[in-house]
Amino acid sequence: MRVFLLGHPVEHSLSPAMQNAAFAAAGLDWEYVLWDVRPDELEAAVHEVEYANVTAPYKLGVARILGGELPSVNTIARGRGSSTDAAILEQVTRCDKPAIVGGGGAAAAFRHALSQAPVFSRRGVWPPDVRDADLVIHATSVRDEVLFELRKGQTLIDLPYPRTATAEAAAGAGARVLDGLEVLVAQGAASFELWTGMKAPVAVMRDALGLT
């Protein structure tokens, strides 16, 4: 069985190493492969695959192609779309005042999960005002600029990997940071379980990414 990562570009992804280690640990003869899909190929690719992940810039587009209520899709299992992007929220104990920074497909998944959260994006409200938030989702592609500052007692979910300058500044200020690799493991484990119906070997997946 082949599982595809649909995106453009996809060469930077660490998902193949993580998921192929998980398949091997589970005794499955499955393979996770990259598929760099041109925009004009997207609809045909979506209808061709049975099992896949979806990454930038196609999460919103795949949701539209497959239909349904989800605004964003990052996982296809047996031809049906789901989103596991927000699985990392299971590791957050306090989420009374969340805020989301970003306007893409991953941000849409968190907006769906956290409907009460204000959203900050360059196409809407900017700059981000997250002073009162207890949880902040950083879902932009900006890596080298500190977009906002956090303090001790706040939690940051930083979606890009490796860690962004925003995440480094937050950690230095004493905030809790769940970085992009932690997010990748959480969403990857949830996707694995949707595809296989088996419990994900999370320790193996973390080890494949160099996490302890």
Give start-end ranges of low-pLDDT stretches. none
Q: Into how many domains do the coordinates divide?
A: 2
**Global mean pLDDT:** 97
In CATH terms, what is the architecture of the largest domain? 3-Layer(aba) Sandwich
The helix fraction, in percent, is: 25-40%
Order of helices and strands: EHEHEHEEEHEEEHEHH
The CATH class name of the largest domain reads: Alpha Beta
Write up what this structure looks like.
The chain has 212 residues and is of the alpha/beta class. The protein has 2 domains: 2-83 and 182-208, 3-Layer(aba) Sandwich (Rossmann fold); 87-178, 3-Layer(aba) Sandwich (Rossmann fold). 32% of the residues lie in helices and 18% in strands. It contains 7 helices and 10 strands. The strands form 2 sheets. The protein has a 5-stranded mixed sheet with strand order 2-1-3-4-5, with helices on both faces. It has a 5-stranded parallel sheet with strand order 7-6-8-9-10, with helices on both faces. β1 (2-7), α1 and β2 (31-36) form a beta-alpha-beta unit. The mean pLDDT is 97.
